[in-house]
């Protein structure tokens, strides 16, 4: 079969052909096929002779607007015009003029037309220009009308809904070959990402490229996990856009299509205020107010993690427990504020002489703990000793101008998966015993694993 299709009864009689219509592998006649297709789509058809102004509508065309064709007779181009919504008529005329003038490839518009019941129906109008095969070269514009009111209403409802929702709503698609894209995003992408919805539909990386590089792998991993488990995707991540950085939260439900595609329908909201508050609270809950070091709660958490990690990967770590000597006497002699100043200075000394990877916490009044990952006992002892010398050589001045020195005692223990697998409680207790041994044997000294230094 060629690429020219003879049209239905009336059209064939007029000897018309449609350019570029595909009719390959057809066993049925084109007339039967076309009729079946049109009936299947529920489309009304119209044919308009541009030379004689003759107009032919099918029965369905009239039915779409609640009439029988007989009730609309005699039909003309004006029949259509008179039923068009006045505000949409110009748009339809423009689309037609553009098509006939060669400005657009197809004639297509969605306009409102008046139904017999007084309601406006959204009609999708499409048309194609045909020329007769004979010498007359008569030009016919032929096309269809489809009632798309329901789709238009849903679209409108979704649009209105998306405007009043506090976030972006979207449909995200992951193809079996790994390609991904948005098949729908609401206009709020502009408020959230500074990108227009069309840009996000064109290329999803217009959004993904704005995600904070530290959070992007987590976002990808969580999507992959949700695709695998088909569990709800929930992810909090930072976005860098509009010259600032803020927290967003995405929530969506995945569905797996028979063709293997995964489709998520969901919403993204801005959680920047809550998230920062949450982070601030979290920070406060693990920080010692006086010194700015971590507190006991955080040290216990880090110890649990270190033991778990050590058991899993066979790593080692050391712990130094430090306690200021005769601190009560410092308070009593020079006053509580001076005692506070000593603690703050001591915290600074520890912080400045330990590594970034170490965790330093004030775990009690004048007690501090240093957790040193991947550090053996001897090395930890050396650090403790350097701190002992540093504090000992520090000169403190009271509010009254009296100068005094301060010392501490320390216990040092090591945790190693090969030698012992002490639980956190036992480890702390071993460290305390070493510390008490240091206190008992005269203070201003370090005891490692219960042995005097
Ligand atoms: N200035 C100040 N003092 C505190 C703070 N927290 C606890 N203290 C005091 O620290 C002192 C600790 O005294 P003790 O437990 O008897 O120990 P010590 O006097 O250091 O004696 P040894 O540890 O045996 O050398 C107490 O007087 C507490 O009131 C604080 O935040 N600031």
From TrEMBL:
Its cofactor is Mg(2+). GO terms for cellular component: plasma membrane. It catalyses: 2 GTP = 3',3'-c-di-GMP + 2 diphosphate. Residues 30-103, 172-230 form the PAS domain. Residues 315-451 form the GGDEF domain. GO terms for biological process: cell adhesion involved in single-species biofilm formation; negative regulation of bacterial-type flagellum-dependent cell motility. Its EC number is 2.7.7.65. Pfam families: GGDEF, PAS_3. PROSITE patterns: GGDEF (PS50887), PAC (PS50113), PAS (PS50112). Residues 107-160 form the PAC domain. One of its GO terms (molecular function) is diguanylate cyclase activity. PANTHER family: DIGUANYLATE CYCLASE DGCM-RELATED (PTHR45138:SF9), REGULATORY COMPONENTS OF SENSORY TRANSDUCTION SYSTEM (PTHR45138). This is diguanylate cyclase.
